[in-house]
Amino acid sequence: MAEMVSLTYQGKTYELPLIEGSTGEQAIDITALRKTTGLITFDPGFMSTGSCKSKITYLDGEKGILLYRGYPIEQIAEKSSFIETSYLLIYGELPTQKQLEEFNYHIVHHSMVHESIKNFYDGFPNNPHPMAVCSAVVGALATFYQNELSVRDDREVEIAIHRLMAKLPTIAAYSYKKSIGLPLSYPDNSLGYSENFLKMMFSLPCEEYVPDPDAAKVLDVLLILHADHEQNCSTSAARIVGSSMCNLFASVSSAIYALWGPLHGGANQAVIEMLQEIHNNGGDVNKYVAKAKDPNDPFRLMGFGHRVYKNFDPRSRIIKKLAHKILDKPGYQEPLLEIALQLEEIAIKDEYFVEKKLYPNVDFYSGMIYKALNIPVNMFPVLFAMGRLPGWIAQWKELQEDEQFRISRPRQVYTGATKRDYVSLGHR
Ligand code: CMC
Questions:
Q1: Which of 302, 325, 366, 370 could form a disulfide with 375 if both were Cys (CB 3.0 to 4.6 A apart)?
Q2: Amino acid 329: pLDDT
Q3: pTM, rounded to two decimals
Q4: Average pLDDT of the segment spanning 57-82
Q5: Ligand 1 pocket, 291 CB below 6 A?
Q6: Spatial distance between the Cα atoms of 374 and 65, rounded to a whole number of angstroms
């Protein structure tokens, strides 16, 4: 018998069931609230709302814990690969050798895009943001694969998953190459996922390109660290769009747009732009910390704070360690790195940041690594999207298979004008 929570309203007491997750978190089940009491809940930004039950990712923001299907992110980052992690997130268990080989085979062999897709890139204006390009092209995949749009046909969903995982790096690298006027590079099926992406980004037809194994390794770990983060903004977008039984291509396209904003996946780009601004204005880090603390100044320190983590983000710890593989390479010099380190040191000790539990988040460090890998700043959110893709897919799939599947349709508290009569133009 479920424990109940009592709600007293207008002299009547209502019993609401308490549901409990596998790690002990508790939620009041309010699905019958409106029907029984006439009330709805009000929770802008969903600060206290659980939108679903999920078995994919667990995070404890107070303790700084992140688990993918129960496995600690620290172990996954150290021992797994992005492809294996994707399988784990999407299908729920670590794959056997055979399952991993098959999954990898399908992804490798779907990496080319239809030649007509290249024409899309010619249609965009010069220098479009690659997030807009990636979202548009991913959405357009639905026009090329019209036999994979059913959300209730396992085989169709399966192929759509392979195609998305395989093609997003190609679509992303094409968007970069196009923006700098260089020829598009085709995928190389002999390479691993991250190596192949680096090759498509940086190889030229006129010279040999061998991906740096350190760069590929670091990129692979960064993709793993971004692979899922439970019900964040873009994942919720994927679920909400998917809840209309809309196909996977369209749902992922929407998620890419949701990720683009500077408060979400655009933050890694915003971090570098902020560091550059500090650098251009003389490098006075304290001035910017003071601006961030000033309640009358809208400026925020990009890369600090998190809706859920009120402790060090465990992903930041992993990235920080990993960063040295790239940032300490002989000859690598980056003035923004010095500013970043100063900022980190000051903010971590500053009373304002300590009191509000604003720690450096994953984007604070990832931007510095991407920069060292020569990835242009506007491609940073695209890298985030590539990493988050298996999470969106897993969450979308879980929604479609959920016994409680319903279209998402929140309510509102209407605060506009009450009924009034139309006033004709001459009388206004
Ligand atoms: N710099 C200065 N003050 C901040 C910052 C910051 N980066 N972040 C939060 N605060 C303050 C904020 O002003 C507020 O103060 P007060 O209580 O006096 O009004 C308090 O801390 C709580 O902030 P909030 O905006 O209510 O918190 P939130 O949970 O709604 O927002 C956040 C979380 C990540 C949007 C926010 O911390 C932020 O804007 N950070 C900078 C952008 C950023 O780095 N985003 C990447 C997030 S991690 C990647 C991802 O998972 O998407």
A1: 370
A2: 84
A3: 0.92
A4: 96
A5: no
A6: 31
